[in-house]
Amino acid sequence: MGVTAIIDYGMGNLDSVARAVEVCGGTPAVTRSKDDIGSATHIILPGVGSFSDGMSNMHALSLPEMLKEQVFEKGIPFLGICLGMQLLAANGFEGGKTKGLGWLDGEVIRLEPDSKETRIPHIGWNEVIFTGPNPLFGGIPSGKDFYFVHSYHLVCKKSEDIAATTPYCGGFISAVRRENIYGVQFHPEKSQRLGLQVLRNFLEVGRSG
Q1: Fewer beta carbons within 10 angstroms: which end of the chain, N or C?
Q2: d(CA 52, CA 134)
Q3: Active-site hit among 42, 122, 153, 187
Q4: pLDDT tens string for the chain (209 positions)?
Q5: Cα end-to-end span (Å), the chain
């Protein structure tokens, strides 16, 4: 199994993601180096924080260009986690309207409570309900709980990009997929056995063609 590049753009959770990849049998490299990213067999973009700060940091390090080359031109499997998934959108509104990577047609907006009991940010375990087959969820039943920490969510304009939803605040998208691009709003590195299974499944993507 080759090296998994875990992108360091100053937005959190790098060590926990790296440890989880190791547990799953992968070889993590926490990096922002063009050479490391260019030689990786898999790429993970984690993240905790605001959309605007995330994109500012990404541009300061010339990461959008590096990642686009690997993901679109070379077809390297890519996984965005939490903020890393949200940055796939065309625009985000956390910290002011900001252009995202634009890999998915959609935008990132604030969660809106649908009852007096609903709390924002959404913190804790909640169901992830699959909308169709997805290599990330192999061996995992739909409706199982994963761990979330977020106040914003991705809204996709194309239903075929939606891989899973979660019944909170009237329902939000909790996983996406477009070809070799994957994203999860939950934190697999904090989701115990099933979260590790998601990462293990991701590391298998592309190994057999």
Answers
A1: C
A2: 30
A3: 187
A4: 689 999 999 998 899 999 999 999 999 999 999 999 999 999 999 999 999 999 999 999 999 999 999 999 999 999 999 999 999 999 999 989 999 999 999 999 999 998 988 999 999 999 999 998 899 999 999 999 999 999 999 999 999 999 999 999 999 999 999 999 999 999 999 999 999 999 999 999 987 54
A5: 14
156 catalytic, yes or no? no
Characterise 27 by phi-psi region: left (phi > 0), alpha (psi -120 to 50), beta (else).
Answer: beta
**How far apart, in whole angstroms, are the C-alpha atoms of residue 168 and residue 135?**
24
Q: What is the CATH T-level fold of the domain 3-204, as seen in this structure?
A: Rossmann fold (3.40.50)
On whether the pTM is more than 0.85, the answer is yes
Q: Is 37 in a helix, a strand, or coil? A: helix
Beta bridge partners of 156: 106
| Active-site position among 24, 42, 82, 94 | 82
Burial of 206 (C-beta count, 10 Å sphere; 0-12/13-18/19+): middle
Q: How far, in Å, CA of 81 to CA of 9, rounded?
A: 13
Is residue 24 annotated as a catalytic residue, yes or no? no
Amino acid identity for residue 97 in this structure: K
Residue 122 designated active-site: no
The domain spans of the chain are: 3-204
Could you give the C-alpha distances from 155 to 93, 109, 174, 203, in angstroms and in order? 12, 7, 10, 26
